[in-house]
Amino acid sequence: MGEVAVLFRLMPRAVDVDLKAVATAVRESAPKGVTIRAMQTKDIAYGLKALLVSAVMSDIGGLLPSTEEAFAKVAGVESVEVMEEGLL
After folding, report:
1. Is this model's pTM higher than 0.85 or not?
2. Can you identify the CATH homologous superfamily of domain 3-87?
């Protein structure tokens, strides 16, 4: 088994969503076996910012979709998109 590095982009529901609170909830909601390596905000448009989450996980089947689902359930998150994915 190998490891996969994944970059997620989480879009908030609104401009006024507290991305620091979202970041904290994302760390807590990450499934077992997923390590959050880094997070940063990125300006999108008109005051809207996205949260970029860099994670490392095992390449076992089903872990990536379950991670996406867990992040999508975080309060204030509108959508989750995998931006990049690669084997380590």
Report:
1. yes
2. Ribosomal protein S6/Translation elongation factor EF1B (3.30.70.60)
